[in-house]
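Give me structure tokens for this 378-residue protein.
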Amino acid sequence: MKIVHAVETVSRNAGGLPVAVAELAASLAKLDGENIACEILSAQGGRAIDIDDAVAVHRLGSVKTWFSAVPPYPPGTVVHQHGIWAPFSVTAGRCAKRRGLPLLLSPHGMLEPWAMAHHRWRKWLAMVAYQRRNLESADVLHATSKAEADRFRDLGLTAPIAEISLGVDPISAEPRDPEAAAATKEKRRVLFLSRIHPKKGIDLLLEAWAGLDAPEWELIIAGNDDGGHQAELEALARKLSLGPGRVRFVGPFFGAEKDTAFRRADLFVLPSHSENFGIVVPEALQYGLPVITTTGTPWHALPEEDCGWQIEPTIAALGETLANALALPDEKRRAMGERGRAFVEREHRWPAIAAKYLAVYRWISGGGDDVPAWVSRS
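Here you go.
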């Protein structure tokens, strides 16, 4: 069986989506007892993330030219479109249908209310011109949470929906840079690590942080600057008198630097207005970090598992929760972290999750008789 993943970019500056696509593809290619060939089609540009050698990667100028040039894909091939607004992935979905290939389409949160309101008129025009047709052509829509699946139905989309979460690869017990991880730090750290983008709610975080009296803590904001938003946040930090020692903007982290940042943190926060999943949450949990996130994410399991908090995306809620988290004894935070680590090990490892995707691929390609239990047809 061949799975063709189409995603706009595999740049390491593009956040969690290309990482999730690459890890899913690698996990499918390595499933025990299976013979799955995986390729990733992506637009050119930017330094790419690390992708396992088991996955063929084609970075193309035009996906339409690629589909025209390559021989017909064999029976059993499925195209998995990741994302909906970028021309590359939309064209890949369209080419798949023209070739008669089954199509699984993952919007990855791009239909959520906050995301739809951002550049509203541009997205409305796209929806009218081509996007609804693209969505309705999918054999199956993929949602990473029940909230995202409900959103599809609210928009009148009638295709079957596969509700499958994303996974994370296990981390090494040993730091990738032992010296950096063990270096003395002057203060305890609250870490934000994601794209620097308006939907991430970093402005709310800065406002909340300014209201706290926590001289023994510092806030680390790490991530790629998306669209120049960091300059606005740095100006807000100056306005709030959040200078060095209170807040540090440190840029993007990858590889060993990212591993070190997680290992040196004491608490993780993702104050997003909207996330379909938020892959950085299980990443932080597996490092033993309690997590504060919002109701704009699907992470209701955090309070249920007693490994974090899920709150309204407001300054008041963030301020109160941060104050409570910072006041916890170290042993309490460590116990929460251990529960989070166990939760990720139990629920969010790739092999079991990749097997669910494989069942859906086989079903829509005619290789499976029974509808997978995680697929809803109404």
